[in-house]
Here is the input.
Amino acid sequence: MARLSADTHPWWRRTSLRLKLQSSIVGYALLVLLICAVSLTWFANTYFHQKAQRDLQMLGEVLADNSRAAVTFDDAGSAANILEASKGNPHIRMAMILKDGKVFAAYPPGITSEGVDRLRPGDGVWLHEDHYYVSVPIVVAKDVKGRLYLQSDLQEWEEVKGNLYKVFSGLFAGLLVLTGIVSYWLNMHITRPLSALSTWATQVSRAKDFNARAVKHNDDEVGTLVDSLNTMLAELAKQESIRSWNEILETEIRERKEVERDLIAMRNRAEAANQAKSQFLANMSHELRTPLNAIIGYSEMLQDVMTDEELDRVELAGDVDKIRSAGKHLLSLINDILDLSKIEAGKMDLSIEAFNADELIQDVIGTIAPLAESRGNRLRINVEGEIGIIYSDVTKIRQILFNLLSNAVKFTHQGQVDLTCARIHDVHGEQVEFSVHDSGIGISQENLEVLFKPFSQADASTTRKYGGTGLGLAISRSYAKMLGGEIVVASEVGKGSTFTVKFPVQMEGIGELFAEREATGHERAASRELDEPLEQTQLLLIDDDEAVHNILQYQLSRHGYMIHSAMSGKEGLKKAFEENFDVIVLDILMPEMDGWQVLQKLKSEAKTMSIPVVLYTIVADKEKGYALGADDYLVKPISKSKLLTTLKNYRRSSSNKILLIDDDRHTLELVDAYLADMDYQLIKAENGREGLDILQVEQGTMIILLDLIMPVMNGFEFIDEVRKHPEFAKIPIIVISAHDLSNKERSLLLQHTQVIIKKGEYSRQELIGNIETILGNQRDARKRSGS
Amino acid sequence: MGACAQRHLSWPRWLALGVALVAAPAARAQAADVAYQIKASYIYNFLQFVHFPTDVLQGAGTLNVCILGEDRFGPALDEIDGATTPQGQLKVMRLGRFSSSAALDGCNVLYLVDSERQGVDSIMAKVNETRVLTIGEFAPFIRHGGLIELFEQNDMIRFRINEELLNKTAFKIDAQLVQLGVK
Here is the structure.
């Protein structure tokens, strides 16, 4: 690059500094010398010629003057003597006096008038053929007596010129010597240091050795240049080190980026894998539960058939029950595993709602009691004070309690299991505390540490002995944490264990959400009432327990019941006489006037005699109840479905078309079997599209049972389509699915469907109860609009 | 003035002629005339190289040239009479032969003709040689106290000058003239 640009430069830019200096010095000196020589020569020449002319003129005049007398008196000899005086001047070549055109006197004496022709007449000095001539008139008394001529050679000038040449030659020689000395000096003090510096700099730039330093010899400009170069090198060295650091950093960054890329790729793969796993699990939850649903459902039906129809097959009922319970167990295992997967994936959603703790307890106890009994355990429930309504996820709390109780029952034989409930107030605010104490085998200290870890039972051998997945406690603890609470355990080997779970009465930060949901729920209910003015079943509840009023209000109002509360027997009777009720739900144990008395009174009065009365109590005396005229007898605690199934008997019903949409053949057949002895016309479709087609053909479909995961058109799409047809939009939908719903899906479904039932987790009664409730509502509505 | 200039310019022809005649080796009948013509021009020429102080010249602008002796010049003198010199106009006065009563006081230049050779001492006695330029055409005029002595040599008229008198005269004689004079 430098070389290339050097080639393009003109030659004088490529010439070395030394040559430039030398040539400029010599040139300058020569120029000065030349100017001096020329001007001096010119000056000398001019001076000489002027002087020569002047001298010749003067000499001529003097000689002419001196020779006046000689000429006047015609004395040629004297004149010759006078002219001879010019011999003192060696350059006077000739002196001559002409008188009357003839040579009067001459010097040197021998010369004749020859050559006089050359002499020009007239006065003055002139130059002719390297000779000066002067002509002076000899004037006596104003008369020109004759004329004097002088001839002078230029020999003198030649001598001067020769001398000048010598001087200038000497000066030139001296100049050359001086130039040599000066250029040597310059070379020593300027050129050589510069060239050495240049060579050094070239070496430095070639070797890239920025730590080299130039040696400073002088304190002049070259020295300053050395200093500057050194400073620059130091700066370069700094830059170089920065650059190398930068390179190292860049390399590191590059490596890190690669690692980062790898990590991102790994993360993406992991996420994809996790996604695949989640998808797989979601599919599995559906795929696994669907056949299990069929197994459990059919085994239940078989059981019913074998017990109810009084066939001589009672001995087989036990076997069928084993199938059912094994199926249930498998379902619970699957549920546990799926739940744990969801918890681990952080996809477990909470479904917050208001519920009554007492009902929950009754529900759980009702489920666990047979198990406790089979293990020979006494189950004791101790509710301290009133628990009341709780805003939380009832499903999860139920599961926690069920896990704790089933564990307690499982690991206790012929012992005592206590469930203690209390509403407490501590630093975390209003809390509900459930404590399960057993007198079982207890848990050793080391096992306590791994107790809540998934897939770890206290003792590996317990898996074989007691069964279970070991997931229950892990799930329970996760749920408790999700609900803002915790589970603690205290245990002593051989003496039993105490598990205590505690969580807020109202989930923190959930209140608003819940309130909002309630509001939308009310809104939806209100809008449905406007669209579809259902005539509600007028129900009179006579119970001194306010909690029961709350629960029933909550449970039944959504199913078309208008609850009229009476807090005592007297109040109940008064209301029963004053108003018309479709059904009366009556508690037995009440102060002042108990349920028996009220029942007797009701049945004795004409106005109230025909009103069906359902006894709803913890007192198990069915015979007495029926004897006194009760229509049905429910023992507390009672599940919502049981209550609904019972109560629907007191609402009029008729045969109607039910559309069942499910791709699973077993489910279709199971539901068909469930509803076989009921007065329904079941129409089956294998996907949403087929369902829609059937809706077009089969007029008067009263209810739709809908699966969600189906080919061609799934449940969600089906709902969308149905909502677009005004004539079908109002048909109530019951969702029956094994699909695990997200909160979003759940809220979507809640807006457009009536009930959501999970496959494998509902009984025949439950299904029929739901159907009856809806059908009853519709009939009432139709009746009202018809009247 | 025009006449003077005419005369002044015309005389060199005479001189040239005179010189030519003088130079002729053979004496001719009129040789004497030529010699005097030359002598007349000599008088004139001498005055070219002599400077009189103003107090010597009585009449301003006039030089009185007195010829003492026989008139052998003839018309040659007429040529110089009235001619101009740096000193003034020449006035030739022919005094004839010397007599004791001769008035020599007014003369600035006194020319003694050869005829007066005998009475030269008495003449010189009457002349203040320091104030009057004396010219004699015979030898040994200088020995008698004269200033310029004309003589013939090699057929040429030459002159010599009294060097003793040179530094005493009131008038100044040009060095050229002195040098030209034969020693």
Chain A has 26 helices and 22 strands. Chain A has four domains: 19-168, 351-509, 533-648, 656-786. Chain A has a mean pLDDT of 80. The interface with chain B takes residues 66, 68-70, 72-75, 78, 100, 140-141, 143 of chain A (CB under 8 Å).
